Amino acid sequence: MIEVNLLPGAKRGKKGGGGPALNFAAISAAFAERVKDKWLAAAVVSGIAAAGIIGAMFMLQRRAEGAVRDAEAAALADSARYAVVLNDRARLEARRDSALLQLNIIRAIDDERFVWPHVMDEISRAMPPYTWLRDIRWNGTQQGLRPPAAYRAPVDTGARRRRRPQAPPVLPRDTLRVRLIGRTVDVQALTRLYRNLEDSPFLGAVQLVKSEIGPEGGKEVTQFTLDFMYTRPDSMMIRRAPFTAAPPR
Predict the structure, then answer these.
(1) 138 with 177: CB under 8 angstroms?
(2) Domain of 226: which CATH number?
(3) 154 vs 48, 93, 151, 165, 170, CA distance in Å?
(4) Which domain holds residue 132?
(5) Residues 75 and 187 grouped into a single domain
(6) Number of H helices, E strands in the chain
(7) Is the residue at 7 inside a domain?
(8) pLDDT tens digits for range 163-174
(9) Planar angle of CA 164, 167, 168, nearest 5 degrees
(10) Cβ atoms within 10 A of the Cβ of 203, count?
């Protein structure tokens, strides 16, 4: 087989079984002989490469823009759906808080109904023999200035979303102080009365205001004045029983 070299000055390729191989050196040399201005050729090649790169970047940007727009549309749809869910949740929480507040107010009013019966019952339990009372009255600020029914929950402006569950409202309760004035013929009976009042779960902060000996019915008796405060025990210590009354005849 005869091989003819059509490119003068080019080296002959090695024989191989894979067909004719491209000689890039020869091609470059032939291109250099035809193109006289190398800078112009470089500018043309650079322009073609720049146009290709710009086109590829443009396609990539269009693809990224489409993905961002799809994500934005999905986010807007999710935001609208979640906004409806959050509004429903806020409305249900407001209804729950209102019902809980009304329930606590009713419970507080129910707990305050039998304050004085508890006081009288505990005083009667604490009374020792040979001791009698002359006066029982409340002492301190006037009662009923802050009724639970007048309580209003603070308004939530919603400027800052709560991250923790709201604590139950603390209803205002009046502090009840009682003054006890009595007589006794035994000094030790006064000490027992003092201790019995302190041991009561409904009474506390007992203080002896005055104790003096004076005449009573031609005999010397000990006149005393005690001050104590009504305390509200735990609900487990209060026993409730139904109240029944006999029908009128």
Answers:
(1) yes
(2) 3.30.70.2830
(3) 72, 15, 9, 15, 12
(4) 114-151+171-235
(5) no
(6) 4, 4
(7) no
(8) 555 566 666 677
(9) 150
(10) 22
